[in-house]
Amino acid sequence: MSDVLDLACELIRRRSVTPDDAGCQALLAERLRRAGFRIEHLRHGEVDNLWAVHGDGVPTLAFLGHTDVVPSGPEAVWHSPPFEPVVRLCDHPDRENQKAAIHDRTLHLYGRGAADMKGAVAAMAVALERFVAAHPRHDGRVALLLTSDEEGPANLDGVRKVAEGFRARGERIDWCVVGEPSAKATLGDLIRVGRRGSLSGTLVVRGVQGHVAYPEKALNPIHAFAPALAALAAERWDEGNADFPPTSFQVSNLNAGTGANNVIPGELTALINFRYCTASRAEDLRARTEAILRRHGLDFVLEWNLSGEPFLTPPGGRLRDAVVGVCRDLRGMEPEQSTGGGTSDGRFIAPLGAEVVELGPVNATIHKVDECVDVAELERLPALYEAICERLLAS
Ligand SMILES: [Zn+2]
């Protein structure tokens, strides 16, 4: 069994359902300490974070990952228990993807977190061990940053909190490689070079409750909100730009009513979300939303939550060039350079001034029953991460 496969299995065996690290970071810290890394455990609340550094001075190349996983769902539905890693022929091809049919004859590692993202975390650790063994006096610093709070809903005590601490103490990161599963059909076919921002709002529209037979004595917040909603849904927030699609506005929940059909409700609640690009600023989206609501004469309260600003690592940056070059030279492919998908913890590192690029395994089964990763691709991943270190830090 290869080193990276073995380590990935060790991690999957630890039942680290978010935000529980379940000993994953202790295992990785011990390995990296033996390889000469300086280890710092940054525990916030019930969240474990690990910062392991090798070398001194500038620049700093950091790998970023998470040890927590999403819950398995009903274990009986899995072909093999989610926290008992198993290597077997793929019996769960992605039928929507023709190319995935070839997975039928390839070995896959099964287990919760195999693809998201214990496989990549194992690959990062192995790559770092190999790199510092081959280049004990490399330029600057290489580092690994891990959290056990990436998959959770709050995301408060993980990389967000670590990044605040780094900013306060002047800890610098120049380049950050995130190992989130980025690939579509095969390792190296897609890298992420940025992410859209996410801005949420909880809107309460106030009316006056009353009897449906006496509407003149009530104010129906559903009727009042409907034209405003139509205007919000039709609004063109921006045109996008060369790197991002246009900003999108969605209502994810809409609630009103007392349960009785003869009562006009007193208020309406809507949850809204913007996935926005670098062509718009959060404060402008907020102001424009509120202006539309006011224009429709609504009595409302709107509470905003900015969960991540958009970021972009522009072309021509050394990290982006290095990652593209590694995909080209080691995988023989020109990776698609995307800003799509959800958010990632890279959003907390980018504002520190770091270039951020995401390169990881195929994401077809993440968060699903029978999550798996192609063993051959997992075994190639350390060489990719090591080559990125070589291109940026080998002297
Ligand atoms: Zn993940």
TrEMBL record:
- Enzyme class label: hydrolase
Q: Can you state which reaction this protein catalyses?
A: N-succinyl-(2S,6S)-2,6-diaminopimelate + H2O = (2S,6S)-2,6-diaminopimelate + succinate
In which residues is Zn(2+) 1 bound?
A: H66, D116, E180
Residues annotated for Zn(2+) 2 binding in this entry: D116, E151, H367
Q: What is its EC number?
A: 3.5.1.18
Q: Where does the Peptidase M20 dimerisation domain lie?
A: 193-298
What's in the keyword line of the UniProt record? Amino-acid biosynthesis, Cobalt, Diaminopimelate biosynthesis, Hydrolase, Lysine biosynthesis, Metal-binding, Zinc
Offer one Pfam family short name for this entry: M20_dimer
Q: Select a single GO molecular function from the record's annotations and give it.
A: succinyl-diaminopimelate desuccinylase activity
Pathway assignment: Amino-acid biosynthesis; L-lysine biosynthesis via DAP pathway; LL-2,6-diaminopimelate from (S)-tetrahydrodipicolinate (succinylase route): step 3/3
Q: How is the cofactor bound?
A: Binds 2 Zn(2+) or Co(2+) ions per subunit.
Question: What Gene3D superfamilies does the annotation carry?
Answer: Zn peptidases
Which coenzyme or cofactor does it need?
A: Zn(2+); Co(2+)
Active site residues according to the UniProt entry: D68, E150 (proton acceptor)
What is known about its subunit structure? Homodimer.
Its annotated function is as follows: Catalyzes the hydrolysis of N-succinyl-L,L-diaminopimelic acid (SDAP), forming succinate and LL-2,6-diaminopimelate (DAP), an intermediate involved in the bacterial biosynthesis of lysine and meso-diaminopimelic acid, an essential component of bacterial cell walls.
Similarity comment: Belongs to the peptidase M20A family. DapE subfamily.
What protein name does the entry list? Answer: Succinyl-diaminopimelate desuccinylase
Species per Swiss-Prot/TrEMBL record: Rhodanobacter lycopersici
